[in-house]
Design a protein that fits this description.
Elements lengths: L2 H6 L3 H7 L6 H8 L5 H7 L6 H8 L5 H7 L6 H8 L5 H16 L1
Helix pairs in contact: 3-5, 5-7
Length: 106
């Protein structure tokens, strides 16, 4: 069993403490997505640098509102679109894309 697999078996609090020991964002994201609490996932996003790894975590959030709020942590429009397509409600997808388009036009 590799280190990431071992960490996935820990409690949420132990996983969060263990994030400091991981050297790269990919490994951190693989552990963060296994957290049970969405608030802890969102807080753990701060430890990630790259948008790709953040997207891997954000799309696992249960609530669309939380997904939308975390879009501001992403710099890349493609990464934002990857999150938006995971929203449950098509109307929210459209509204969120329109907001992004309007922000981009400014």
């Amino acid at each position: 069993m590799d280190e990431i697999e071992r960490l996935k078996l820990l409690s949420d609090d132990e996983k969060i403490k263990a994030l400091e020991t991981l050297g790269n964002d990919y490994a951190k994201a693989q552990v963060i997505v296994t957290l049970q609490d969405d608030d802890k996932k969102i807080k753990a996003l701060e430890t990630l640098i790259y948008d790709y790894d953040k997207v891997e975590v954000i799309i696992t959030l249960q609530d669309d509102d939380r997904k939308i709020k975390t879009l501001e942590t992403l710099r890349n429009d493609y990464a934002k679109a990857e999150v938006i397509i995971t929203l449950q409600d098509d109307d929210r997808k459209i509204k969120t894309l329109e907001t992004l388009r309007n922000d981009y036009a400014k």
